[in-house]
């Protein structure tokens, strides 16, 4: 028999303990991102105020991950549902969680309009450069030359165009007075935590935040542990990891 | 009745006194999915998948794949594996 341990895992208050292991594949980046998000919610004491919305795609498997109010929405419509919630109940901290398909493909209209209007919410976009749940097809963010199910010889940019860069796009159109726009990576958990903390603080003060997190998909990339992290390094070089707009720094100047 | 965090019992592996007695290392095998990201991220490369697991399932993870274990001599108790694990399966408790 396996021995029962006297200690408990290091779960945050905002994480649901009774469901046991999460529903994601082994090595999935969603686990790291959501774990860090839950820790940040605990640190900022937002457990009562936060509302979590998840999209269709792999990100919907987070429907029972968080121990806070959760709503599961239509594909790409997490953004309007969450800003509807925050408009109806001022003071709520809305978190819209989506993948690159839900945010930059089918949901890009809502993403653009929400960021132009500066809605009071956090949009958290996990970018793993393919459509994970349906078997790893090409997505808007697939890197040039990357092999996916629908680009078996590598993505050819002369036919399919260039990859979408979400954080740059939002930084160009968002209101610089009260927006926080950044790109982070799950390869650097401490950096991710810092970015999520700044983003949630901005939302709690009434601003708009957009964070794109570079994530991994070992199952559909068909990579082992070491090659997964090598691919993540390539992504960090292609997609620039930095803070694009920070409202707090402008106030100091 | 809903279960709380305190009611749930976790089974797993305990490695005592890693890093010259500075910490205890725990692994919860009902949470480990054997992705081995911790093996790739470990700064001193002391984590390894168990090559011949026990027959009583005590060294198998959620999907009945071998879990990892640190070398007692090499581990420095830094906690990188705990931070890397996407499923919170590892805990490094400093004394």
Structure report:
The complex is a heterodimer of chains A (about 250) and B (about 100). By secondary structure, chain A is α/β, with parallel strands linked by helices. Chain A has a single domain (about 25-145, about 160-250), classed as Thiamin diphosphate (ThDP)-binding fold, Pyr/PP domains (Rossmann fold, 3-Layer(aba) Sandwich), CATH 3.40.50. Chain A is built from ten helices and nine strands. With about 100 residues, chain B is of the alpha+beta class. Chain B has a single domain (about 10-95), classed as Alpha-Beta Plaits (2-Layer Sandwich), CATH 3.30.70.3270. The mean pLDDT of chain B is about 85. The chains are: A alpha/beta (about 250), B alpha+beta (about 100).
List the helices and strands and how they pair.
The complex is a heterodimer of chains A (253) and B (95).
Chain A: H1 29-44, E1 50-54, E2 69-72, H2 78-88, E3 93-99, H3 100-105, H4 108-117, E4 121-127, E5 130-131, E6 137-138, H5 157-160, H6 166-173, E7 179-185, H7 189-204, E8 208-214, H8 218-221, H9 225-238, E9 243-245, H10 247-252
Parallel strand pairs in A: 1-2, 1-3, 3-4, 4-8, 7-8
Antiparallel strand pairs in A: 5-6, 7-9
Helix pairs in contact in A: 1-7
Chain B: E1 12-17, H1 18-21, E2 23-28, H2 37-41, E3 47-49, E4 68-70, H3 80-84, E5 90-94
Antiparallel strand pairs in B: 1-2, 2-5, 3-4
Summarize this entry quickly.
The complex is a heterodimer of chains A (253) and B (95). With 253 residues, chain A is of the alpha/beta class.
Question: What descriptive keywords fit this protein?
Answer:
heterodimer; A: 253 residues; alpha/beta; Rossmann fold; seven-stranded mixed β-sheet; two-stranded antiparallel ribbon; 10 helices; 9 strands; globular; B: 95 residues; alpha+beta; Alpha-Beta Plaits; three-stranded antiparallel β-sheet; two-stranded antiparallel sheet; 5 strands; 15% helix
């Amino acid at each position: 028999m396996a021995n029962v341990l006297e200690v408990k895992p290091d779960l945050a208050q905002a994480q649901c303990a009774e469901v046991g292991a999460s529903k994601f594949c082994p090595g999935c980046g969603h686990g790291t991102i959501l774990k860090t998000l839950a820790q940040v919610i605990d640190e900022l004491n937002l457990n009562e105020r936060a509302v979590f919305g998840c999209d269709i795609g792999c990100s919907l498997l987070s429907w029972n991950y968080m121990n806070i109010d959760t709503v599961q929405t239509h594909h790409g419509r997490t953004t309007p549902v969450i800003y509807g919630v925050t408009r109806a109940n001022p003071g709520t901290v809305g978190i819209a969680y989506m993948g690159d398909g839900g945010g930059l493909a089918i949901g890009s209209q809502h993403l653009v309009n929400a960021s132009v209007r500066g809605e009071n919410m956090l949009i958290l976009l996990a970018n793993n450069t393919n459509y994970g749940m349906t078997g790893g097809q090409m997505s808007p963010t697939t890197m040039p030359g990357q092999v996916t199910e629908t680009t078996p010889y590598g993505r050819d940019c002369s036919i399919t165009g260039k990859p979408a860069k979400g954080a740059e796009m939002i930084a160009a159109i968002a209101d610089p007075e009260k927006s926080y726009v950044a790109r982070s990576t799950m390869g650097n958990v401490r950096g991710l935590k810092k970015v999520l903390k700044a983003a949630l603080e901005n939302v709690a003060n009434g601003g708009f935040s957009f964070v794109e997190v570079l994530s991994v998909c070992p199952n559909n990339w068909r990579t082992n542990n070491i090659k997964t992290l090598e691919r993540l390094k390539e992504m960090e070089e292609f997609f620039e990891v930095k803070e694009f707009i920070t409202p707090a720094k402008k106030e100091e100047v | 009745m809903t279960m709380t965090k305190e009611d749930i019992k976790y089974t797993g592996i305990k490695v005592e006194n890693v890093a010259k007695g500075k910490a205890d290392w725990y692994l919860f095998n009902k949470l480990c999915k054997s992705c081995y990201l911790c093996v790739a991220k470990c700064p001193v490369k002391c984590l390894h998948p168990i090559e011949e697991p026990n027959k009583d399932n005590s060294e198998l993870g959620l999907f009945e794949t071998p879990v990892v274990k640190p070398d007692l001599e090499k581990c420095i108790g830094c906690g990188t594996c705990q931070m890397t694990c996407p499923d919170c399966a590892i805990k490094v408790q400093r004394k």
